[in-house]
Each structure stands twice: as C-alpha cells, then as structure tokens.
Amino acid sequence: MLGRMAKKLPKPSLGLPSAERIEQSIYVIRGQRVMIDSDLARLYGVATAAVNQAVLRNEERFPEDFSFILTWQEFTDLKSQTVISSLGHGGRRTPPRVFTEHGVAMLSSVLRSPTAVSVNIAIMRTFVRLRRLLATPGELVQQLTGLAETVKLHDHQIRAITDVLQRMMEHPTPPRRRKGFHVTPDSAEPDP
Q1: Is residue 2 part of a domain?
Q2: What radius of gyration, in Å, describes the C-alpha atoms of the chain?
Q3: Is 58 in the same domain as 73?
C-alpha cells in the first residue's frame, strides 16, 4: 500500500454517547429534527460512506420523510450556524444526507452491528425527550390553539357558575325552619 494513504475510520465510541452529545448532533432543517450522516457515522463508529452506502442499498426503506440530501444553501447555512463545525472536515464534494427520527430508526435495521443497535436506542430516547421538551413552533402553535379552544368552551360554563354564585351571594335564601318541637333557651323552664 505504498503511495496510498489508508482511510481513517472514526474511533468507535467507548460506551454509549451521552444524551447531551446526541442533542448537539440534532438540527432543525425544513421544520424537522434531523441528524447528519457524518455525525451518525461517528456515533456508530463507522465511516460516513458506510452509512450512505447502506442507505443506497436499501433506498426503498428511506423515503423523503425519513432521509434527504441537503441543498448546498442548506448545507452552507448549517455550517455557518454551528460553532464547532464537524461538517466542513474532509472537504465534502456533496452536501450531507440527513435523517429524521424515523430515518434514524430505520438506519439501525440496515446497520446490523450491536453498537448500532445500542447507539440507536440512546438516539431514540433523546428524540423522545426532545419532543417532550421542545415543541417545534408549529407544534407549539397547535397546542396553544387547542388550549384556547378549550378555554373558550369552558368560558361559558365558568361564567354560568359565577353568575349563579353571584346571585346566591346577593340574595341569600332565608334559613329553613325545622319541623317539630324544639326547645329554645328562652322557652326552657327555670330549675326549682
């Protein structure tokens, strides 16, 4: 192998990546949370080419809502947004492929190593946690709209209850008289 440089593979990670490390590898592009092929390859401990080849061999498993290739503009914007850019290393000739949460899940079925499975579980847990913590703007608007509709629905009921309570406070009902014989302190006979 004289004259040819051996291609350096990423070092396999020792143990599972931390949730923080995974979160730092998740970006929002086209309104979806995605992970970049090179970041996934690093987490799985394989070459980026291996990830992309696995996808190309199984294209039917990766529709556009699972995986897509960034445009050059999206790639440039992404590189300018990241403080420490792992995206620019290696002089990419093509924009990266990104994977949505479903695409990452499907990726574990085509990368069949034990590392891929355990790393994938950690990634899925991170996506779920992020979904709970951070609603995308569209999801947040949808949730607020639903809340507003619920408040409007209950608003009439709350007003009706308030009106009844107000009337009860303004016009209290007289105490009810008890039936039968009752001894009051005034009518009690004095002791001899």
Answers
A1: no
A2: 33
A3: yes
Q: What is the pLDDT of residues 21-43, one digit of tens each?
A: 888 888 888 888 898 999 888 88
Identify the pLDDT of residue 6.
Answer: 40
Taking the model in full, what pTM does it have? 0.55
* Segments forming the whole domain that contains residue 148: 135-170
Same domain, 80 and 98: yes
Whether 51 and 88 map to the same domain: the answer is yes
- Any idea which residue has 């291996």 for tokens? 50
- 65, 100 in Cβ contact below 8 A? yes
